[in-house]
Specification:
2 domains, mainly alpha, globular, about 75% helix
Amino acid sequence: MVTTLISIVVSRTFVASRSVIELLIMVCVGAIVGIATGFISELASAEKVYGIFREFGPIISVLEVIFAYEIAESLHGSGYMSVFIAGLISGNKARFGLWAPKESFESATHFRENIATLSRMAIFVVLGTQVDIDILVSYASRAVLVVLILMFVARPIVILVCVALDRKAKWQKNELLFMMWVRETGVIPAALSGVVSSMRIANYEMISSVVFMTILITLLLQASTTKWIAKRLNVLEK
């Protein structure tokens, strides 16, 4: 949806039917490519006769991401959707009977964890380079207002809508309050903000500043109080 909105902003034209069709194409193509790439990669590295790359788990992990993203994008699909679906299959390979050798599985897992940590650090570094201190100060009050709306209006509404569709779970009031509060913002908004900044969309500096402020406040206020809130609401497992 962010990609669709960016294309609307860049082209300065909006046709509802066309935008919906483009969004559906991006989602469907991304999902199909992700499923195909995920299964082919895991088949090639599985502990089976056809698992010709079973000893190269880390390398397959990298190639899986590259192929999933690039193929989806070349077919006008969502590269992010494709990579996510491929990762979903990779992380649940046991459900599909695609076991990998223990050594290869462990090395691939550690490799992915390290790459993920480095990538998250790089994304935050990129976000920091896009933030102008003067613009951050000038938009500080409005950015804080946006953050407060996200925390105390948007998030609770989303939780209430979601649980309304999940009646079987029978969520308790204290559990709902906990979910409404604990939602620190992090790497995904930072990555999307980086996309906006790289395209030099109008007022991208303001967008980066608001995203930076949102991440900073939610991490300091919500992430740091998670355990205390859990205790107060009696949802902390002993």
